[in-house]
């Protein structure tokens, strides 16, 4: 009888954990997708030369004054989908590893990176089908993304996923062990600081990927020196924009996801 009870309870607990993981992911993604949509569109318009970064961001903020209209935008729901599945991948991998007493470090990094990259690719293809990318890039029709750009985006996402889902716990533990902060403060700092600081390294990859998309190798006379000058000229404002993007997406969003997940799990 004890064995039967044990086998009956464990699946129920797993079901509750999955429900909490998915609910927390969706709620966190819903909130963070508003600012991320605005920043994403502004960065894409700036790097493609359609509109300068800050005017594009201001236009997005004005649109946010009409939230019901904003929620009808396909861009918002695509980005919502990207972050929902990314958080779900992180939460469910963590729950599975915890249930079977596995180290979640590498499984969570692998799951979040693959899911986030695949979801972002699907989002881009959907934008193209809906004509959204045509609007983002002005009158230029959407074209295939070069393999080099895919590789750069993958490395960029790998760095971001590491900072968002793998570094916070060990950093928080170190801060507490060395009496540098309380557990609650360490949790906040370790979730926000890494995702913002990693942008110093990932922004050049991001800019180069877009430059290779806009000016393909072999199809124009753009030299690597010209590309380097483009990256240098756009680096600072793109760094600020990308930091503003990941701050809600994986900083505030990461904290919200964890808080909601813990709350739903205990209900």
Structure, described:
- Helices cover 84% and strands 0% of the residues.
- The chain has helices spanning 2-48, 53-64, 67-70, 74-99, 105-130, 132-136, 147-166, 168-177, 183-197, 199-214, 224-266.
- The two termini are 27 Å apart.
- Mean pLDDT is 83; it is low at 4-9.
- It is globular.
- It has 267 residues and is an all-alpha fold.
- The longest helix is centred in the N-terminal third of the chain and has 47 residues, at 2-48.
- It contains 11 helices and no strands.
Distance between the termini: 27 Å
What is the overall pLDDT average?
A: 83
- Write down the Rg: 20 Å
Total strand count, please?
A: 0
Please bin the fraction of helical residues.
Answer: over 70%
What is the overall number of helices?
11
Order of helices and strands: HHHHHHHHHHH
Which structural class best describes the helix and strand composition?
mainly alpha
Overall geometric form: globular
Our estimate of the beta-strand percent is under 5%
Low-confidence stretches: 4-9
What's the story with the biggest beta sheet?
Answer: none
